[in-house]
Amino acid sequence: MSHTPSSDLAVSLRCVTKCFGSQTAVNAVDLEIPQGSIHGIIGPNGSGKTTTLRMILRIYRPDSGTVTVLGKDLGEAADDRVGYLPEERGLYHRMKVRDVLRYFAMLKGHHRPDRDIDRWLEQLQATEWSHKRIEQLSKGMAQKIQFIAAVVANPRLVILDEPFSGLDPVNMEVLRDAVLELRRQGTTVLLSTHDMDVAEQMCDRIFMIYKGKKVLDGTLQEIQADYGEPILRIKMAQAVTPNFQHASFSQLIDGVTANGPYYDIRLKSNEGRYAVLKQLVEQGDIEHFETAKPTLHDIFVRIARPSAAEDN
Amino acid sequence: MNKILIIARREYLAMVATKTFLITLVMMPVLMFGGLILIPTLSKITGGQTRSIMVVDGTGKLGDLLKTAAEARNKTIAENQSARENQSADPMNTSDIFDLQMVDASTFNDETRLAWSDDIRNGRLYAFVEIPSDLFSTKTLPTTKFVSQDSAISEARMWMEAVLDPLVRQEKAKSLGLDPQLVQLATSPLRLSPTMPYEQSQTSDATGGGITAKEKPFDLSTFFAPFGMMMLMFLVIFLAAQPMLESAMEEKSQRIAEVLLGSVTPSQLMTGKLLGNVAASLLVFSLYGIGGYVIAVRQDMQDLIPLHLVPWFVVFQVLGVLFFSSIFMAIGASVRELKEAQSLLLPVWLVMMLPMMVWFIAVRDPLGPVSVSLSLFPPSAPMMNILRMGTGTTIPLWQPILSSILLGVSTAGVIWMAGRVYRTSMLRNDSVKTLAQFIQRIAVPAPK
Predict the structure, then answer these.
(1) Please, what are the domains in chain A?
(2) Is the pLDDT of residue B126 over 90?
(3) Residues B8-13: contacts with CB within 8 Å, 24+ apart?
(4) Does the structure show a pLDDT above 60 at A308?
């Protein structure tokens, strides 16, 4: 990975390790997040994402290595320049929307937050809910309020854990615009998600942690170039079901994923695509074929699936 | 504004600006002291009945006197409504009307006894009284019977006993040729007057020799005033500690703690929460204190309110609230649901209730070993010290001072231990199931 000058980094983790008892949650992880970027952090459940985020939030201290956030090494005090949105929950149910936003803003050192609260409520189309109690809000609306709570104090780094969870497509679009707007204003966004489409579409860089170790780090293009062979996507003529169990395929393909009428065939090598096509033509007419780069989803599954199978 | 104060303010408002707080504020004293109000009210409802009582006067001298006394009583109750209300305030007095009928003793026999007993069982008659003919005998102690189905402490029996007793004494004195008034003086029971130690008075007079001593009141207030103060302390601590449990549970289960700990340190968070909690408890004390004082003034009982104990009350209250709120907060941080907290709360409740189990002993003997040792035992110190002081007994000053120091040191220790549990537990998704696991969390340092 190319090293960015440290002054341009919002977050820098150098050889960070964190253990809980005998279990190593994060193992010698390096991470650099340039300022003003949207950085995705992905990984299966229990891979070390939350521990990494908590170290950046200064809730945990690493056992070894250094964590630098916005130019400051880890200290005792939490950083007011960092906003955080936890997954789904994180609000006092019996408090009113405006009161809870004011409370979280003041805890971040923003003592006159009303103007910013109004601005964000308006931007996220939630003004009419400002005097409602949190418990009266729908899940999606509560998620938007949670987002405002994370950004209302104008932080320079925002950590968002599954920010689009529970949102309908319209509200998802509203929130997505808000996140992109944050980047335009120079705010660094660290986005933890299980939604690979979101990571692909929104993130400048993507970092994947698995079993406590870094397994991916770079732009989508870099990851696609570095990791995995292209995919052969085909669509057979109607009434033709390809038989991928055929002996001739075993040397050529790694696996197949059905997506409606399409089949995404992971090739063992790019050179094998002609042989695969030839075999399929013998089974029936092919209506469509293309070679595609592996999606983040494919790469994620390719990394996580073998171990999951072993665990099972 | 300092972050600790911001947290304290929210905690304070979250506690006091809720319907639950207001309802609990009203309901708790009603549940605890409601009996004192309920008994006279129920007595008023059940009172006012006419009680038919047959009187068989073997002496031939008491029947008319009894009837005259009953008629005077009935007249007073009927004519003087305010007097009736005053009587109703006494739980022993139900203001029943007594309809006494005199019966010739010569016609009274076992057959009559059985017939009237049936009438009593069937509700046609309330009671009958057998006054033996040799009641005035000075050589024997004959029995006068009050036959009824009602309780032995029924108003009618107690009233009749109170009327007959002096009459019989008088008659016996007369039969012995003695002056009844002299006999009454000679046989009056001795009363040891409870008196405070003497002290030099500001203005000496001829008879007092310059020293004075206050007589201690000896009535129900002797017991109930200190009990009331102890219960006030319990209410204040309970109303403060319980919300801390719920608040910590909510912050854990809703992952609010994670957001908060991204803004403040665990120490700041816990300190702020405890400060807000203490402020809310002082509000509770002020409301109950002012309310109680206003009621006492209206009832002309302000002398019962020991205003000089207010500073001690505040000291023990603040320490007690910090002590128990820290424990409740640590328990709240260790569990996800209220039912999971019950087993951990049980030992805390038992310790908290200890003074209630021994309050009567402490009121009777505030300087005894049980009272002194429990007032020095930190968990029971807040309630026990106030209970003892409330009796009006002169407690050696070193005892409340030592007690508050011990409580202060223990509170600091409890806050430290609770802080360890709080830090360890708030970010975990699991629940502590047993006391042993809870203690283990104190021993194991929190991840940093």
Answers:
(1) 6-224 (3.40.50.300), 229-293 (3.30.70)
(2) yes
(3) B8/B272, B8/B273, B8/B275, B8/B276, B8/B279, B9/B276, B10/A103, B10/B276, B11/B247, B11/B272, B11/B273, B11/B275, B11/B276, B11/B277, B11/B280, B12/B276, B12/B277, B12/B279, B12/B280
(4) no
